[in-house]
Specification:
The protein has twelve helices and 21 strands. With 377 residues, the chain is of the alpha/beta class. Strand 16 (302-303) and strand 17 (306-311) form a beta hairpin. The longest helix has 14 residues, at 224-237.
Length: 377
């Protein structure tokens, strides 16, 4: 079924700005012409069950983390753009005592909702991929968690069984390699136009080492770039206007086989328009990480010229990629892009100052899980 991409009336936005509201349209939305459209894609990555801004080890709140804080950015970010999507880049299920409590103490019965899925379903995510820590509690636990998601998970390089096919397209994959979402997007004139957004996902092949006990004999992995080169052409054949890569893999410019951090080379695959990265718990673009790497522009936020972003970890940042799209006949193409990693806190006078409040919907939805985790700890 065709869906509208979280549209906001351009007229309403401009009226709000004129009335003094603290809303600034992204330049792409402000200047889009009738044959153009602005699409904003928001990313979270490496949440590691930090849905709430609470450090269970220190037994106190922590203003540097929490999806409930990142979530408070969403409405504001959506108001800056006419069209938007929300996606996640993996490493959701392990990383704090709440994750251990659910996996080891409470358990999940068929039909139970994991706390992370409660939060993500509330926020309207449209797609996610798997991170390496999704496998820490075993495949059966993972399957039960994924069953509670109101959105698809994709992964193009995780194979069910022990055999790799001669052609990656013949692999018996554990999940769908990609999805193509049929959407409606508002162009610069305010008219709704159809667009097909393809999203493909990747996990580090090293899960077969890190979680050998849980995975041996059940699944295998394929090289990320090899899988991308195999599946992206099929996505284009099936009519994807744009292709977004969810690469739970960091940034490294030294190429090799079965790379753990392959996002730089994913960006070089023909047909991929934007790359969402993670895994390394760093920030891109920015002034600190990934400096002086050939082909990596830490100011513009590009890898081999393609827009890319890494949104920190534990909900510390929201990754944003803004695409200016232009209609070429009946198809859309990317003509310009910007990237940003927007933080939930700032460091002032040697203290962490939150930039945003909590999203009360998530706080309320996870209250029982939070109290149970405190008791567990």
């Amino acid at each position: 079924m065709s869906q509208l991409l979280h549209p906001i009336s351009r007229r309403d936005l401009l009226a709000g700005a004129a009335a003094g509201a603290l809303i600034m349209l992204h330049p792409f939305s402000a200047r889009a012409q009738g044959n153009q459209a602005h699409l904003r894609i928001m990313e979270t990555t490496d949440i590691h069950v930090n849905v709430l801004p609470y450090d269970y080890y220190a037994d106190k709140t922590n203003d540097t983390l929490g999806l409930s804080r990142t979530a408070s950015l969403i409405d504001a970010v959506r108001k800056e753009a006419v069209n938007s999507m929300l996606i996640d880049n993996g490493d959701l299920l392990q990383g704090n005592p709440m994750g251990d409590y659910i996996a080891y103490e409470k358990g999940l019965k068929d039909g139970d909702l994991h706390p992370i899925m409660k939060g993500m379903n509330l926020l309207g995510y449209e797609c996610s991929t798997l991170g390496n820590h999704e496998f820490n509690y075993g495949l059966s636990f993972l399957d039960k968690v994924l069953a509670g998601a109101n959105f698809p998970f994709v992964c193009a390089n995780l194979i069910r069984g022990t055999e790799l096919a001669a052609n990656p397209r013949d692999d018996k994959l554990y999940l769908k390699p990609y999805v193509i979402l049929d959407k409606k997007i508002k162009d610069g004139s305010g008219a709704e136009q159809p667009i097909r957004v393809g999203i493909i996902g990747f996990v580090p092949p090293q899960i077969m080492v890190w979680d050998l006990k849980n995975l041996e004999g059940n699944v295998k992995t394929r090289d990320i770039v090899e899988a991308a080169k195999a599946w992206v052409p099929q996505m284009k054949e099936e009519g994807a206007d744009i292709v977004i890569a969810l690469s739970h893999s960091g940034i490294d410019v030294k190429q090799g086989d079965m790379m753990e951090n392959a996002s730089f080379f994913v960006a070089g695959v023909d047909g991929i328009d934007a790359v969402f990265t993670g895994h390394q718990h760093l920030v891109f673009p920015g002034k600190k990480d990934f400096q002086s790497l050939d082909g990596v522009d830490t100011q513009k936020g590009t890898l081999q010229g393609k827009p890319a972003v890494m949104g920190g970890f534990w909900g510390s940042h929201m990754g944003l990629i803004d695409l200016m799209l232009e209609r070429d006949g009946s198809k859309w193409k990317v003509v310009s892009a910007t990237s940003e990693a927007r933080p939930i806190f700032e460091r002032l006078d040697n203290k962490n100052k939150p930039n945003v409040p909590d999203d009360k919907r998530i706080i309320a939805a996870l209250e029982q899980d939070h109290q149970a985790t405190l008791a567990y700890v």
